[in-house]
Design brief:
single chain, alpha/beta
Length: about 325
Amino acid sequence: MSRPTSEVVQAVAEMAGNVMVLGVGGKMGPTLAKLAKRAVAESGTDKRVIGVSRFLVPGLQADLNQAGVETIPCDLLNESVLQQLPDVPNVVFMAGRKFAATGNEPLTWAMNTYLPGRIAEKYRDSRIVVFSTGNVYPLTPVAHGGAVETDAVAPIGEYAQSCLGRERMFEHFSQRFGTRVALIRLNYAIDLRYGILLDIAEKVYSGRPVYLTMGNVNIIWQGDANAIILRAFTHCQSPPICLNLTGPETVSIRRLATQFGEIFDKKPVLEGEEVKTALLNNASRCHQIFGYPRISLEQMVYWVAHWVKIGGPTLRKPTKFEVRNGKF
């Protein structure tokens, strides 16, 4: 996941200055930072890669340091600490809050909407690639192939609404200061330790029910998603460019459960029936710019199945992709 392609190496080589990843301690941050650092090394430049997080996961900070990523422990909601962060010309903003958003809505809004405004103001002179989410779209008819960037947004629930707030903050400050921004609406990145495929594979393997009401999803390998994030710096602009980021397929949950059942020689337990709408992104524009993902859906399925069979470690963070009411 952190092995750079020639396109990533070229994109990093063309960057003017260092790279900072805000919220590096999440599911994707560590591999993104390591990818950037390896691309720097292969480009023959001396750019710094800096990761900022509270570093709540034991050993993560040391692991990143060992990989050559400089780290700064920081609670980004602490204004005085935030203002002490170094100025860098290239910023990835991936801090945010989703799970447990229901029940602590004020913190969710602070992380997903207030903080982006503070970051957008502080780094007004930088290029900023912003992690957003396809949850800003409404549920769309499966037959339509997913929402495109020009479709009207209609977020369901406070988590999704706060994520739209994140986008609006970066749009506002981009318009005010001319900040070059790329808004990346991601659905859904996976690796072997977490993601929709793992959720389904574990349920099939253990005989737990797989719910079908959210009958279709989009999936992309985390390494492919990270590569596009770094390449997106060359496309930052004001007003911001908005790109859906996911794989090319509309993936059937029923079909995935059936396929895992065949691999495990277990009959999947399926509950409910597919609804004609789902949370789906159409990433055709992204694929036109960056090309199709390298890792195929079939490859991901077989990798995850093997991982479950051997009892590989997981992050124990279910995606809750089944949720249709926006309450995560």
